[in-house]
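Box 3.1 A note on notation
Throughout this textbook, protein chains are presented in two layers. The first layer is the amino acid sequence; the second is a token string describing backbone geometry. Keep the layers aligned when reading.
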Amino acid sequence: MKILETERTYLRQYQENDLERLAEIYSDEEVMKYIGRGAILSKEQTKKGIDAWIKKIYSEFGFGIWALIDKESDLLIGHCGFNRLPEDAGTEIAYLLAKDFWGKGLATEVSRETLKYGFEKLNLERIVALAYPQNLPSINVIKKLGMKPEGEKIFFEKTFLFFGIDKS
């Protein structure tokens, strides 16, 4: 079932059969350099993430990280969706693309629709974003979404730039 659709992509919940492709994406050091702790994930770690989204997070929160699918090829090319940050730091919009899909405007395209979905369908009042200070392409996407810088925060023992936007 599609969560939302853009011109070139759609989001859906993860399925167990997404493991091989997602593990391939998560094993790319360049892709994972600015994600979470900044390290690749093993196939076992990837499976734990998919299992958590399927068995717990989607039902508990009504949202999560969703599989990003390229419409033309029907290939899983990354993810986009929402995370609950620790210490009540907010609901984060998060996105990731396989390297072959970088530089095509897809992160902005899907993030813009996901942000809209969060405000209109999930009734979120505020959405935040994190970016490593060195990750200029991601910072550009976040700014295109209209999110404003709010300083720095530490997560996973790493310093992130912190951005936010309110529903109003």
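The chain has five helices and eight strands. Strands lie at 2-5, 9-12, 65-70, 75-84, 91-97, 126-131, 148-155, 158-166.
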